[in-house]
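Hi support team,

I've been running sequence recovery on a batch of backbones for a student project. Most finish fine, but this one hangs at about 90% for roughly twenty minutes before it completes. I'm not sure whether the input is malformed or the queue is just slow. I've pasted the structure tokens below so you can try to reproduce it. Let me know if you need the job ID as well.

Thanks,
M.K.
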């Protein structure tokens, strides 16, 4: 094992119940198991994930940092839920700096919170796909564009479906995609590679 991330999404039992729809008592059990995991992790990196939305309590977020640290996690990462407009633009960089020298680091997905899209065609989906329970291959699990389905692997095989991905991506309207999708950062990076280099010293 090299890396594990536990989706905690809460700093208190009450918030855990609200986010995960389970009994509040489950929160303590998750922290207990997280602590057992970190004590026996060896060289494995163990982190905690926290999804935020417009109704997220900033005090709960900070308590989650304390809980992750207390359980021995190597880091806690904050990410926005798809479609969320909450940015926490001043708070998250502050926590990153505050815990920079700590054993439990704080990080956040800057591209997802910014919602920046610098591309007209998704590039990230060329390295990723989704196959549904019925065998349909989709270029992405998040877009609702009707062009996302490129075939059925049970009927045509994986290779035949995969070969249609570039054509499907050219047809997909990015307005049907969430601005904070998991492939946004990859697409922004790959788009920057395609731009002309202004000077050979500036890559």
């Amino acid at each position: 094992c090299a890396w594990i991330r536990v989706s905690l999404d809460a700093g208190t039992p009450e918030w855990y119940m609200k986010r995960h729809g389970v009994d509040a008592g489950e929160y303590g059990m998750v922290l207990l198991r997280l602590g057992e995991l970190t004590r026996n992790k060896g060289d494995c990196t163990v982190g905690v994930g926290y999804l935020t939305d417009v109704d997220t309590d900033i005090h709960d977020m900070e308590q989650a940092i304390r809980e992750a640290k207390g359980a021995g996690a190597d880091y806690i990462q904050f990410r926005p839920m798809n479609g969320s407009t909450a940015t926490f633009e001043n708070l998250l960089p502050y926590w990153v700096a505050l815990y920079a020298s700590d054993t439990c680091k704080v990080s956040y997905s800057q591209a997802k919170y910014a919602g920046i899209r610098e591309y007209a065609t998704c590039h990230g989906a060329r390295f990723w796909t989704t196959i549904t329970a019925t065998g349909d291959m989709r270029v992405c699990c998040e877009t609702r564009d009707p062009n996302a389905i490129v075939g059925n692997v049970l009927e045509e095989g994986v290779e035949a479906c995969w070969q249609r991905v570039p054509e499907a991506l050219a047809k997909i309207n990015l307005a049907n995609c969430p601005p904070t999708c998991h492939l946004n950062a990859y697409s922004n990076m790959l788009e920057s590679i395609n731009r002309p280099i202004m000077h050979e010293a500036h890559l």
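--
Follow-up from support: It reproduced on our side and the slowdown came from queue contention, not your input. The chain has nine helices and seven strands. No action needed from you.
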